[in-house]
Amino acid sequence: MNIAIACDHAGFPLKETILEAVRTAGYEPLDLGAFNVTPDDYPDYAEKLGRAIQRGEAARGILLCGSGVGANIAANKLKGIYACLCHDTYSAHQGVEHDAMNVLCLGARILGPELAKEIVAAFLAARFTGQDPGQERHARRVAKVRKLEG
Q1: Cβ pair 92, 122 in contact under 8 A
Q2: In the chain, helix, strand, coil percent, each to 5?
């Protein structure tokens, strides 16, 4: 499974750590940039990552910017993209398990590399549980969220 990785200039310093964490988890990273710290705009990278998921080039994505907030907002504008800003492992796995999150947003100016690796591992190890016995409420809730997309 391919995992799309994208960042703006502020996320770039953490990107190599994230690429390695994806490889360590047994996945193939799809590096969509940025490729240096030249100032740029996070919505451009959120769109690249979201479109790669929409086209089926990646199953999930990890998006970095300085705080993670702007990238999160931009990514959620794309249909079928369910991005969440997570700075802890619980939110990273629970967002997938209960809410069908498919994009993890991280703040490169907020997290250190070791915590970032743990968060990425939790995100990638998780699976949506909405089809599991006794967990149907998650599928019901996600269906309601998808209806909001129009």
Answers
A1: yes
A2: 45, 15, 35
Residue of 65, 84, 86, 105 marked active site: 65
Q: Which of 84, 86, 93, 98 is catalytic?
A: 98
Length of the chain (residues):
150
Q: Is 9 a catalytic residue?
A: no
Phi, psi of 51 (to 5 degrees): -65, -35
Residue 69 structural domain: 2-148
Active site residue 7: no
* CATH number assigned to the domain comprising residue 63: 3.40.1400.10
Per the structure, how many domains does the chain have? 1
**pLDDT tens-digit map of 13-52:** 999 999 999 999 999 999 999 999 999 999 999 999 999 9
Degrees, nearest 5: CA angle 103-69-41: 90
Cα separation of 86 and 81, whole Å?
A: 15
Query: How far apart are alpha carbons 92 and 135 in whole angstroms?
Result: 18
Overall pTM surpassing 0.70 (yes/no):
yes
Burial of 43 (0-12, 13-18, 19+ CB in 10 A): middle
CA angle at 34 for the pair 124 and 90, rounded to the nearest 5°: 25
Token code pair at residue 89:
């492992």
